[in-house]
Write a structure and sequence with these properties.
The chain is built from six helices and 14 strands. It is mostly beta strands. It has a single domain (7-238), classed as Hypothetical protein, similar to alpha- acetolactate decarboxylase, domain 2 (60s Ribosomal Protein L30, Chain: A). The strands form three sheets. It has a seven-stranded mixed beta sheet with strand order 6-5-4-3-8-1-14, with no helix packed on it. The longest helix is centred in the middle third of the chain and has 9 residues, at 96-104. Pathway: Polyol metabolism; (R,R)-butane-2,3-diol biosynthesis; (R,R)-butane-2,3-diol from pyruvate: step 2/3. It catalyses: (2S)-2-acetolactate + H(+) = (R)-acetoin + CO2. One of its GO terms (molecular function) is acetolactate decarboxylase activity. Keywords: Acetoin biosynthesis, Decarboxylase, Lyase.
Length: 239
């Protein structure tokens, strides 16, 4: 299979999750045909997904981490083929607050999608994972207010995620959306804060984005999305 390193593939949109459309609509097996690296969630927002080297890991709210079988359905996920030959920048004592400055200081990338991958030693990592929801599903903002928090010092692992331009808020979360998984596969989740003491940073810009929609899901097809509150609820949920 020829891998396209300049294409980003996404199933569903973050805006779909805002009103509580959490039912899985696309199988992991098909998702992974479009990328070997990425992030997402599972049916009912049952955890934070991290895809590394073609393996989909799910960090659950009880702290357990599972490998998802191909038939697992996801409502929202973003993947790409990781370019191992991408330029890597050595980083020391880099924290989340300084990540944007580190990248944009030398790269005019504010108007395009790109992947972020940080590997190395982290002096501190803070993540979260939401508990699996059951019907009738709450809104995304309501779920975000009830989340499990995980912290680890002296952690070795990988940050993976994406930067999305403000222009595409709703399709994704504008700004950085990052997940983490340690090398031991014992801790991870949606990244809230980090400091990498020593590691490498790679960025992978995308020339094209393929957005896949769940055309066979009637709940999505017939839903009337309320755009007026979407921006604020996404920012609240992803912060």
């Amino acid at each position: 299979m020829v891998k396209n390193y300049s294409k980003l593939y996404q199933h569903g949109t973050l805006a779909t999750l805002v009103p509580g459309l959490f039912e899985g609509t696309f199988p992991i097996g098909k998702l992974l045909k479009n990328g070997d690296t990425g992030i997402g969630t599972a049916t009912g927002l049952g955890g934070e997904m991290v895809v590394l080297e073609g393996t989909p890991y799910l960090v659950k709210s009880d702290g357990k981490i599972a490998i998802l079988p191909d038939e697992t359905m996801v409502p929202f996920a973003t993947v790409h083929f990781d370019n191992e030959n991408a330029e890597k920048i050595k980083v020391n004592d880099l924290n989340e607050a300084d990540l944007g400055e580190k990248i944009f200081h030398k790269n005019a990338l504010e108007n395009v999608f790109f992947a972020v991958k940080i590997t190395g030693n982290f002096s501190h990592v803070k993540t979260r994972a939401v508990a699996a929801q059951k019907r009738p599903y709450p809104t995304l903002a309501e779920v975000a207010d009830k989340q499990a928090i995980f912290e680890e010092d002296n952690s070795q692992g990988t940050v993976i995620g994406y930067f999305s331009p403000e222009l595409f808020q709703g399709m994704a979360s504008a700004g950085f959306h990052l997940h983490y998984l340690n090398d031991n596969k014992t801790m991870g989740g949606h990244l809230l804060d980090f400091t990498v003491s020593e590691g490498s940073l790679a960025i992978q810009p995308f020339a094209s984005v393929e957005q896949h929609f769940p055309l066979e899901d009637q709940e999505f097809m017939q839903h009337n999305f309320e755009l007026s509150k979407m921006d604020s609820e996404i920012r609240h949920s992803e912060s």
